[in-house]
Amino acid sequence: MANHTDIDADELHALLSSQRTILVDVRNSDEVARGVIEGAMHLPMDVIPGMGNLLCEHHDTPLIFYCHSGVRSAHAAAFIAGMDRENVYNLRGGILAWANAGYTFVPNID
């Protein structure tokens, strides 16, 4: 069984800058209305189980989850990694850590 890896904001920034990734924001709609990390797709936490098979495709592409503080996204990452998906990451500290590291947001375009 695969495990997910917790990464910090600087590690996420480096991943986003260096290679193709799948970045998933699992926050609620009212939270993403305040802004998202550029390139993120919004999949609220409650839809993750139904998206499992789709998210398990492309094992070679890093799949990164984030939320407000890192708790919900850790659950999402553990769930998908439990489906034997490789290269699964969780942003430790969530979007709060991203902001505290000085990185910016973009408007949500959902």
UniProtKB/TrEMBL annotation:
The keyword Transferase applies. Gene3D superfamilies: Rhodanese-like domain. The keyword Transferase applies. This is Rhodanese-related sulfurtransferase. GO terms for molecular function: thiosulfate-cyanide sulfurtransferase activity. Residues 17-107 form the Rhodanese domain. SUPFAM superfamilies: Rhodanese/Cell cycle control phosphatase. SMART domains: RHOD (SM00450). Keywords: Transferase. Pfam families: Rhodanese.
